[in-house]
Structure formats: C-alpha cells, structure tokens
C-alpha cells in the first residue's frame, strides 16, 4: 500500500457505501465512476482492481455503519454506529461474535424505528457478506480478528490503519463463502434465541 498516498474524496468524486472500496479509491487504486447492484465484486475481478469500478447500491437497511435509507443519507459513515460496533469488542478485538451481535442489535433497532424497513434474505446475505469480507481482508493476518483502534481508522476515515498489511496469502472465494455461511448460521441462532 505504500506506493499510493491517501487522499480523501474531492468535491466531484463519487464514493460507495462500502468502506473497503472507498479506502481503495482514497488511495488511488480505484476510481468509482458509477453505482450498480452487487456487480462491484464482478467488476473488481474482471478489472483486477485496475482503475475503474462500477458500483450501485450495495448498502442495505440495518447496516453496520450506515443509517437506514428511511433516515436519509445511507451512504456516509455514521460515527455513532461505528462506536456501537467497537463497543462489541472482545478483549479489544472485533471478531465474528462481535459483528454478529451488532448485526442483531442494528436489525432489532431498525425494526423498532424504521417503518419502511426492507430486510429479507438479500439484505441478510449482504450483511453477512460485508462482515465476512471485513474479517477476511482487514483481519486476514490477525486470525480473523481486528483491533478496535485499527477498525476505527478503517471504518470512520476509510484509511488503511498504520501497520496494516494486505493479506499475506491470497484470500480465495471459499474462505469468504465459509465465513459468510457462518454469519448466516449465527444470525439464525440469534433469531431463535430471541423468539424463546
């Protein structure tokens, strides 16, 4: 990452609701030119993170770091939601359990206050996917755990934290899918526990 210098978005730059893609854009690895549904991963693979990424709404209600669409700006990071996530830490680290717990807190809060909540399997899948990607990339070299100080820098400022390195080995699709499935299973467990 040292070849690229961080520079926040200019007045005409577009940013996505995804902190990872925004961080890559802030370092000049990507230029976000438009927004399209979930095809951003395919664009990343197809263009091998060259220069352009087409994105669309990949944000969803009950997000870890963004407000629900009903409340207005669902693209800009909400520092209060990041702080809520960081409070779910276990021994100063965010892990699968922390992210699952926050997802459940956010979903229940959205059910209470958002009369237009859109939450079905697609949003559940997106939520599990964002958590899986976060742990598998930002936490790749630290046993799928992220120190809260580093995560705060990444999520609030869309910067790679001091001392962070890209994964030591290629992060393949199967670890991401496996992790995503573990999140979905944990979400189901939390739902069953709440119904008791």
UniProtKB/TrEMBL annotation:
Its cofactor is heme b. Gene3D superfamilies: Chloroperoxidase-like. Keywords: Heme, Iron, Metal-binding, Oxidoreductase, Peroxidase. The keyword Magnesium does not apply. PROSITE patterns: HEME_HALOPEROXIDASE. Residues 2-179 form the Heme haloperoxidase family profile domain. Pfam families: Peroxidase_2. Belongs to the chloroperoxidase family. This is 19245_t:CDS:1. It comes from Gigaspora margarita.
């Amino acid at each position: 990452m040292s070849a690229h210098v961080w520079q926040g978005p200019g007045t005409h730059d577009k940013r996505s609701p995804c902190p990872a893609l925004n961080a890559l854009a802030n370092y000049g690895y990507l230029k976000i030119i438009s927004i399209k549904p979930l095809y951003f991963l395919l664009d990343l693979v197809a263009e091998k993170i060259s220069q352009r990424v087409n994105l669309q709404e990949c944000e969803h209600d009950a997000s870890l770091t963004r407000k629900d669409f009903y409340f207005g700006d669902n693209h800009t990071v909400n520092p209060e939601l990041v702080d809520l996530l960081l409070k779910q830490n276990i021994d100063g680290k965010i892990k699968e359990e922390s992210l699952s717990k926050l997802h459940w807190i956010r979903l229940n809060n959205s059910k209470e206050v958002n009369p237009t909540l859109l939450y079905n399997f697609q949003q559940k899948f997106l939520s599990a996917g964002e958590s899986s990607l976060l742990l598998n990339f930002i936490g790749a070299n630290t046993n799928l755990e992220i120190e809260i100080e580093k995560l705060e820098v990444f999520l609030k400022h869309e910067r790679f934290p001091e001392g962070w390195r890209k994964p030591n080995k290629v992060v393949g699709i199967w670890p991401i899918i496996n992790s995503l499935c573990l999140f979905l299973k944990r979400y189901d467990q939390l739902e069953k526990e709440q119904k008791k």
